[in-house]
């Protein structure tokens, strides 16, 4: 009995989730760009790890010319990471606010048409 209730609830949850996804569907291009922004931020983070690993492993053998360019590379990687994360956050926020606005508008229109 409990297993049947759990399966019925899971089916109901999936139907609800699919209905909500219908509201998100118009924003899929923004979602792809947001994922690309997060991927850019993640790649910059991985580059940080690799760069600092190289610096720690070879700090005595570095030449002066290479040492002067390291701060610029670090600043550039930090800017790329920040830009990627900001792009991802802003676009996902825009998607979520747009979906909530659409749902609220539909709800209020339905309430206005209800008989008194």
Outline of the structure:
By secondary structure, the protein is mostly helical. Helices cover 89% and strands 0% of the residues. It has one domain (28-113).
Ranges with pLDDT <50 over ≥5 residues? none
Report Rg: 24 Å
How would a textbook summarize the main sheet?
none
Tally of individual domains: 1
Q: Distance N terminus to C terminus?
A: 41 Å
The whole-number mean of residue pLDDT values reads 86
Strand content: under 5%
The secondary-structure element order is: HHH
Query: Globular, elongated, flat, extended or rod-shaped: what is the shape?
Result: elongated
Let me know the number of strands.
Answer: 0
Number of helices: 3
Overall structural class, as computed from helix and strand content, comes to: mainly alpha
Give a structural overview:
This protein is an all-alpha fold and 116 residues long. It has one domain (28-113). It contains three helices and no strands. It has helices spanning 2-24, 28-57, 64-113. The protein is elongated. It starts with a helix and ends with a helix.
């Amino acid at each position: 009995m409990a297993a049947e209730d759990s399966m019925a609830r899971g089916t109901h949850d999936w139907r609800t989730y699919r209905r909500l996804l219908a509201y998100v569907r118009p924003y899929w291009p923004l979602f792809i760009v947001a994922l690309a922004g997060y991927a850019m931020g993640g790649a910059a983070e991985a580059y940080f790890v690799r760069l600092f690993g190289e610096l720690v492993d070879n700090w005595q053998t570095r030449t002066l010319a290479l040492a002067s360019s390291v701060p610029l590379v670090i600043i550039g990687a930090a800017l790329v990471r920040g830009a990627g994360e900001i792009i991802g956050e802003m676009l996902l926020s825009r998607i979520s606010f747009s979906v909530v606005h659409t749902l609220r508008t539909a709800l209020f229109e339905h309430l206005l048409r209800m008989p008194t």
